[in-house]
Design goal:
Elements lengths: L1 H5 L4 E5 L9 H10 L6 E5 L1 H10 L4 H11 L19 H11 L11 E7 L5 E4 L7 H8 L9 E3 L2 E5 L15 E5 L17 H27 L3 E5 L14 H6 L7
Parallel strand pairs: 1-2, 1-7, 2-3, 7-8
Antiparallel strand pairs: 3-4, 3-6, 5-6
Length: 261
């Protein structure tokens, strides 16, 4: 049982990106809090960074889950952009994040937090942590900025985008030898059968999303294969859900329950 193996140990909680699929991580966090297990640091990418940041300031899982009711209606946070390099502007999302984090900086968290982003100009990974004098909401806007979809974020004269481009499951950034990693875009995230929809357009879209999931899965698999740390990996079965299925937040949360046993 994973929960018995990490009990009384300092461990890093690493949460992957994955859009709406990341809501499954709340089930794991619920189970951790049920047995009074708390990580010594949190590492997150994209949606994993948002959930991890909420946890890092002391929010309970049920309150974080309640926030996704707001995300379940995309009109609450999606505003199409007619300028720039993205389809969706960040103004509405920024308002939501400001309501949660206000002016808190990464150095102000109760649990040390690391947020993975990508420097859009040179392609290098950038991990924001307590040594960076920036607000949590700004680092989150950078970590979730899928190129072409969400608006990229300018921080200290550099431009940042979604961390999945470099490291979707940030095990390489973890401080502690023991790591509890939750990967919603792992081997259980893509169907082992080819799409067979009636409309070809749906098949093409399914193939595109499948390809991205396989690409990210192989990125993570390489990191896992070379790591010398003690990693307890949880991969919720997210095959039947899309990264934009925020309206299915209740079903997605259930995917992460009872996986610590």
């Amino acid at each position: 049982m994973i929960k018995n193996k990490i009990k009384n140990k300092k461990f890093s909680l690493v949460l992957s990106g994955g859009g709406a699929l990341g809501i499954a991580q709340l089930g794991v966090i619920h189970d951790l809090q049920e047995v009074n297990l708390s990580p010594s640091e949190i590492v997150g990418t994209s949606m994993g960074a948002i959930i991890g940041a909420c946890l890092s300031i002391g929010m309970k899982e049920n309150k974080i889950f309640h926030l996704f009711k707001e995300f379940s209606n995309i009109f609450n946070w999606v505003k199409l952009s007619l300028t720039g390099n993205s389809i969706i502007g960040s103004k509405k999302i920024e308002i939501i994040l400001n309501n949660i984090f206000s002016d808190l900086k990464i150095k102000d968290t109760k649990i040390p937090l690391k947020i993975i982003t990508t420097n859009t100009l040179n392609g290098d990974i950038k991990v924001f942590d307590s040594t960076d004098d920036i607000q949590i909401k700004d680092a989150l806007l950078a970590s979730m900025a899928i190129p072409g979809i969400f608006e990229e974020k300018s921080i200290n004269n550099s431009i940042y985008s979604d961390g999945f481009l470099c490291e979707n499951l940030g095990i390489n950034q973890a401080k502690y030898h023991d790591i509890l990693a939750v990967d919603v875009l792992g081997k259980n995230s893509f169907d082992k059968n080819m799409p067979s929809n009636f409309f070809k357009t749906n098949n093409v879209l399914d193939m595109l999303e499948r390809s991205v999931r396989i690409l990210i899965y192989n990125q993570t698999k390489t990191s896992l294969s070379i790591s010398t740390k003690n990693i307890y990996l949880i991969e919720p079965i997210t095959t039947n859900y899309k990264t934009f299925h925020f309206h299915k937040y209740k079903e997605l949360r259930k995917l992460g329950l009872n996986l610590l046993n």
